Amino acid sequence: MPRRPFDAARLPSFDDAPAIVLVSGGTDFFVEEAAERVGDALARGGAERISFDDEASADAVSDALLNRSLFSPRRVVSLDVTRILGSESPGALLDNALAAWEEGTPGGRRKAFRFARALLSAVGMSRGDDPARTAEDLARRTRKRDRAAELEELLREMPEERTPPDALAPALRRILERGNDGVVALLTATDPPKGAALLEEIVGKGLQLEVAIAEGEIGPALGRLARVRAADREVTIDPDAIDRLRFQTDERPEAFAAELAKLFAWAGKGGRIRAADVRSNVEDEASEDIYAFFDALGQRDAGDALRRLDRLFSGRDIRVGRETMETDDSWPVKFLGMLTSEIRRMLLIRAALDGVSRWEPSMSPRSFEQNVLPQIKEPVPPFGKGAFEGHPYMWYRVAQRAARYETPELARALARAADVDVALKSSIPPLDAVTAYVGRLIAGE
Q: Model's pTM, two decimal places?
């Protein structure tokens, strides 16, 4: 069977399932959530369900996998195999282990031990007799030296593993060869490495369902994660705090989950997390969207525009649409080029729209494309094309940004761009030069 995205509408029934169904993804919460839905689909109509954690012996797990149930013709055996398959990102396993450890609950401890064992397996190490040295080695390998002390505490408390990572591989391979004869193994794994031998065998003869959150669903999914985890920890988290955490972690699920666990540990049972607490306790790692800055410029909102401008010059990564770019010493000049290109587009379309009666900034993109763009998109001889080539929606957004400006204001701003370029190449701090330029544009000077 193929490797395919998790789709709640296409979950296999027991009779149609292969001997192994693996649910994998980058964030354990969403993997476990999806696996629960797969388990419900497999058990629909009646099936014995058995779940094992890392403390289960290899004999017990193998017996459940290789022998049919005495009580039901169908059996679903659930097991996390992250420690068996390994991980693409040991650093994420370390973060997940410590985040779960900070929960301070029995469930959190079990999860922390599971991730710690997966981390050890991923880098080919054992806990050994010296947790301090092991923690130091792990922290060095994952480039997280500042977390060695926390990891040492976790490793000292972690019980000896009863099931070595390679002990279950033979049983899993055996049921793959045998096929579904009344037993289906429902496996989960966090960020397994593509190309691993056992993983490819599962893909070849079983089914791997990869959990990924669609772009438009990331916000609601992270909100759900926060609310569920908050209820489990008996902590209140304000909606504004969830929104702030989404922003400061750039809506990256792994970072969001790790920082959320730290906030829960900080708040304690019965505590409350507000947006201000997120600002105080979570490092702002969000990249900055240059189009959000252009939107603030179009709104003539000086406060928002200058705040975003400060972030654009803070050394963080920059998002340009779906692309991400790193900033370097040449960034101020590159940014000025992007800004003046946008002002030039705003000037072009603002001047063109001065004579278009049907244009309204509140009109829909479709109406703009059908009723406005054709009036200003006349080809310019001898070039055979007009000034407004490109995607209609892009010009719709530029037109909206330009609507609050008069044509002379944009023309003056474009003319001053050369002065800013000179300033960037002098001793004037780049942010100061660009801030003055943007301030004058918004003020209409």
A: 0.61
